[in-house]
Amino acid sequence: MHDSVYEVASDDPRLAKLLRASLTKLATGPEGPLREMAEGVLSGHLDLRRAAMSDAYGDALGSAFGRFWSHYEQLDQQERDELVRRTEDQLDALLDGPRPS
User: Fold this and answer.
1) Which among 67, 71, 41, 68 has a CA at the least distance from the CA of 54?
2) Residue 32's Cα: distance from chain center in Å?
3) C-alpha distances out from residue 82 to 38, 51, 76, 77, 86, Å
4) Is the pTM of the predicted complex or chain greater than 0.85?
5) From CA 49, how far away is CA 54, in angstroms rounded?
6) In this predicted structure, what is the pLDDT of residue 15?
7) What is the residue extent of each domain of the chain?
């Protein structure tokens, strides 16, 4: 993985783990600029910060965020709260491992 990921994560191992998981998900997704970017960062050939700000990948990132934001704005407050709760649970499981039962 490119060193820039650790710089973006401010050397926080939990954030670096989250970034790696996100990039891995993108790298196994459909063909396109986001997959290409993720593969480049994970292989160490591409600086994450520069890629995100580049014309080659910035538009694709902005478009993906725009789709998310459009969906989010259509949710009512209860649905937003549930989305946040589920996301926090998934993030905790990813970063800390499964909780004991």
Assistant:
1) 41
2) 16
3) 29, 32, 10, 9, 6
4) no
5) 9
6) 82
7) 4-96
Q: How far is CA 77 from the centre of its chain?
A: 24
Q: How many helices and strands (H and E) does the chain possess?
A: 6, 0
Record the tokens describing residue 42, joined without a space.
């994970």
Residue 78 per-residue DSSP state: H
Torsion of Cα atoms, 70 then 76 then 77 then 79, to 10°: -90
- Please report, rounded to a whole number, the percentage of residues in the chain having pLDDT higher than 90: 44
CA-CA distance, 51 to 12, in Å (whole number)? 21
Burial of 10 (0-12, 13-18, 19+ CB in 10 A): exposed
Tokens read off for 55: 């014309």
Cβ-based burial of 6 (10 A; exposed 0-12, middle 13-18, buried ≥19): middle
What is the predicted pLDDT for the residue at 100? Answer: 56
pLDDT tens for residues 62-99? 998 999 999 999 999 999 999 999 988 888 887 776 55
